[in-house]
Write a structure and sequence with these properties.
The protein is α/β, with parallel strands linked by helices and about 475 residues long. The chain has 18 helices and 17 strands. The strands form four sheets. Strands 13-12-11-14-15-17-16 form a seven-stranded mixed β-sheet, sandwiched between helices. The N and C termini lie far apart (about 55 Å). The N terminus is likely disordered.
Length: about 475
């Protein structure tokens, strides 16, 4: 299969609601072979053509599908019954309309840590194996088909399941390697981060690209020879000539052969570990410059603000290993914990899994280089603020890193928090006498005339109502609770 023929994940578009039953989609909407995903009347829907409808009927008759839905491993999906939705289906020529359960917050593979990508891969392999036991296969293997409820991965692309025909190969194998196996191998064996690569390529990392980064010694490591080197060689030999699927079918594929390959992949992935133990900020919680008294005061401050009103969605920017995200999660439906330090997010994710915390989603996000809208007409992957604006944002021990470390003007950052993010704000100002600020300035020309408490408070007051201000005992740090004007 040539790279250009790898199935692309479906686009998601918002419906322009109106009196007519005919669904009107935004410009740039896209219909793929799996139907069309859209929103209407507060529901998340997918219109299916006749063939996809038959596959849905076969899937919904299986035992494993309902078990996986009840386990939270597949998004809860039902055939739409509301008359308005059925009318929309008929008007658009769809055989039927599915209604999906909402995911709290959409994220993308280039925002996940190593263990998240690993767990998403294991989920897809397990669903493939369970489906084959009942004559169903996953034809697609995109990492974009997985979303998260906290630290629990959920498969969302229902029409990726289809009935397996005797002799058919697993056509999703190449895509699975490009989206999961190759990124994980490079991170585990070469300490090469996959996030930037997946952000820049919707199809993932091709076998030949991965092979070129592996040394001769690497080829002796588990998985590299079979799933990288020989895979790249086979793709080069095929060269896009002929019907690859027909050739594989003629070779006599069986369900047992596919399952053996899948079990081998599962064993490989389960054994992969990213062994990095140090990074710039992963140990910040243990090495920061403030005393336990300040830490306790910050926790109390955050807890009081979060609990002061119902919180549907909280963002913790610069979350590190999640101390304050955990506090926010006590009183919020969902917390999105973001940090640019991959190792810090990795440790947070592993900790949350052990603690069985279900309402914190950790993401690798560099606030100085935010994930943009991507894909066809910039509509396939939404930018961060389009995916759900928070009721409250935590911005603790972060401002000096943005202004001095990343050279973001203070006023620009506060304006972004106010205009693009919105909601209430808990923010910490760390003055120039603090050891952490001195460290940031040590090898830099001090061009940061705007970095002062007076300038900060002026910028904050211009955009928010400051309802509370608390100086910490260190004398170099101050906490603020601010609400948007009119809030």
């Amino acid at each position: 299969m040539r790279p250009s023929t790898i199935p692309r994940p479906p686009l998601v578009h918002r419906v322009m609601e109106g009196a007519a039953a005919k669904v009107r989609l935004e410009p740039g909407s896209f219909r793929d072979r799996n139907g069309r995903v859209f929103y209407q009347d507060g529901a998340i829907l997918r219109g299916l053509g006749a063939r996809a409808a038959r596959e849905w009927q076969a899937l919904s008759a299986t035992r494993f599908f309902h078990e996986a839905v009840n386990e939270g491993k597949i998004v809860r999906t039902e055939q739409a019954q509301r008359p308005r939705l059925l009318a929309a289906g008929r008007a658009n020529g769809w055989a039927l309309v599915l209604e999906h359960e909402a995911i709290p917050f959409i994220s993308y593979p280039y925002e996940w840590c190593f263990s998240q990508l690993k767990d998403a891969a294991l989920l897809q392999i397990d669903l493939l194996l369970r489906g084959l036991d009942e004559g169903v296969i996953l034809k697609d293997a995109s990492a974009f088909n997985v979303q998260w409820r906290g630290v629990h991965p959920t498969f969302i692309d229902i029409p990726s399941f289809e009935r397996w025909q005797a002799g058919d190969p697993w056509v999703g194998y190449r895509q699975f390697c490009q989206m999961f196996v190759n990124p994980l191998l490079l991170q585990a064996y070469k300490d090469i981060p996959f996030q930037a690569w997946l952000r820049g390529s919707i199809d993932g990392i091709a076998p030949e690209q991965c092979r070129n980064l592996m040394s001769f010694r690497d080829r002796l490591r588990p998985g590299v020879l079979a799933h990288v080197v020989l895979h790249a060689r086979a793709q080069a030999a095929a060269g896009g000539r002929g019907d690859v699927k027909q050739s594989l079918r003629a070779a006599g594929f069986s369900a047992d052969l596919i399952q053996r390959n899948a079990r081998g992949l599962r064993s490989l992935i389960e054994g992969l570990e990213w062994k990095r133990s140090t990074s710039v900020w992963a140990n910040y919680a243990a090495q920061n410059s403030y005393a336990d008294q300040d830490r306790d005061a910050k926790i109390a401050f955050v807890r009081e603000v979060v609990a002061s009103r119902p919180r549907r969605l909280v963002w913790d920017l610069g979350c590190n290993t999640g101390t304050f995200a955990r506090v926010a999660a006590e009183h919020a439906d969902q917390v999105i914990a973001m940090d640019a330090d991959h190792l810090a997010v990795e440790r947070l994710y592993r900790g949350l899994k052990q603690e069985q915390v279900s309402n914190i989603l950790p993401l690798v996000v560099n606030l100085a280089d935010l994930p943009p809208a991507l894909g066809w007409r910039g509509k396939e992957r939404k930018d961060l603020t389009q995916r759900g604006r928070p009721d409250l944002t935590l911005c603790l021990a972060l401002l000096h890193h943005m202004v001095i470390g990343a050279n973001i003007p203070l006023e620009e950052f506060v304006d972004w928090l106010s205009s693009a993010v919105g909601g209430d704000l808990v923010i910490e100002f760390v003055d120039r006498e603090d050891p952490m600020v001195r460290t940031l300035l040590r090898n830099k020309d001090d061009i940061y005339d705007d970095y002062s408490v007076e300038r900060f408070e002026a910028c904050l007051s211009a955009r928010y109502n400051v309802v509370r201000r608390e100086a910490l005992s260190s004398g170099t740090r101050t906490l603020y609770h601010a609400m948007a004007h009119g809030g």
